Amino acid sequence: MRNVKVFWACALLMSSGLLAGAPGVQAQVSTASTERKPGLAVCYMYKLIRHVDEITEWAKTLKCEPGAPLLTALDFDGGTSKVLTSNADDGVMARITGFIHLEKAGAYKFAFESNDGVRLKIDGKMIVEDPGVHDDQFSELATMEVSKPGWYPLSIDFFERRITWTLRFLWKQPGVEADLAPVPVVFLAH
Q1: How far is residue 65's CA from residue 11's CA, in Å, rounded to a whole number?
Q2: Taking the complete model, does pTM exceed 0.70, yes or no?
Q3: What is the CATH number of the domain that holds 38?
Q4: Rounded to the nearest 5 degrees, what angle is found at the Cα of 112, between the Cα atoms of 81 and 63?
């Protein structure tokens, strides 16, 4: 029985899609699933930190408390209010997970406006990072080439240290001439 489980685990890993490292990340295979809920899942840890890497370190010892799902686009200028659906307005670490629907092949552009640090991974590969403490600012623009449309695993680590916070997840789809815009919630699921 153990060998059967190992076989299926290996088969699942080999069949999953991969993205090459940024810049110009290449999406190769989509993740298929029919049981998705709208929006993104989120859990929270509470501690004053200075770098997005600390979220992974604190996750080893702090429980990540589930919050209400994020059912709107990530387009928040939270000011001094509570961060997202957390219970606090300072010292918040958010781990946001789910899927993003990349509906056509081509070059997608991604960026964030944030206050404070943020990191985006799609299919386990880092796409955008603006990791430290800062006022509202835009990250660098990242490009990801998608060869096969579909749903891809997404994770966003975000933290707010003190006073004010902002989190805007922006994109530009292939063939679209408009400026960057918030990723619509219809393209996000968990």
Answers
A1: 32
A2: yes
A3: 2.60.120.1560
A4: 55
